[in-house]
Amino acid sequence: MGIGVSILLVAAGAILAWAVNIGATSGVNLHTIGYILLGVGLFGLVMSMIFWSSWGGPGRARGGPYDGV
Description:
This protein is an all-alpha fold. The chain has a domain at 3-22 and 29-52. Helices cover 62% and strands 0% of the residues. It has two helices and no strands. The protein is rod-shaped. The protein starts with a helix and ends in a 14-residue tail after the last helix.
């Protein structure tokens, strides 16, 4: 899950948890679903940030004997 998907889940969860005001739904509590999406999105965002720093990317310095020169 990338940063964009995590932010989307956080936004959708926040909308369902705090902005939707529905009186009664049968069998589904939208506020609970909102809090679940919010938690999953925050967890994904933290994990993406942790693994993004260890990835390196295309500009990473190479120090091995076969560095493409």
